[in-house]
Amino acid sequence: QLVESGGGSAQAGGSMRLDCAVSGDTASVYSLAWFRQAPRKEREGVASISTGGGLTYYFDSVKGRFTISQDDAKNTVYLQMNNLKPEDTAVYYCVADLNRWGLGTQVTVS
Question: What pLDDT, in 10s, does the model give residues 33-86?
């Protein structure tokens, strides 16, 4: 199970952190990622991290502004979002191994 939290509203230029608590068979999870979907747009990738080596990948739209990290002890993955822009407004989803999805959390930037 993947449960996102930390969404809400922010001003442009502000910061916000999203958390994703991972439960269940966490030992078999290879990668964790954040995706997002804005109104009337297709779902798109944001960032990913490999649970074993901590390798990270960022999509161009968030490079230099967002940071993905994990806390193995807490089975939690984070998305630190800085310098937020109105175009970051979307529902953000936590995804495990590209086949397990959380319900999402709304982020609104004005």
Answer: 999 999 999 999 999 999 888 899 999 999 999 999 999 888 999 999 999 999
Environment class of residue 20 by beta-carbon count within 10 Å: exposed (0-12), middle (13-18) or buried (19+)?
buried
For residue 21, the cross-strand partners are 3, 76
Beta bridge partners of 51: none
What would the two tokens of residue 9 be?
């509203």
3-state SS of the chain?
CEEEECCEEECCCCCEEEEEEECCCHHHCCEEEEEEECCCCCCEEEEEEECCCCCEEECHHHCCCEEEEEEHHHCEEEEEECCCCHHHCEEEEEEECCCEECCCEEEEEC
Which residue is listed with tokens 């930390």? Answer: 6
- The 10s digit of each residue's pLDDT in 1-22 is 999 999 999 999 999 999 999 9
At 8 the pLDDT is 96
Distance, CA of 85 to CA of 108 (rounded, Å) = 9
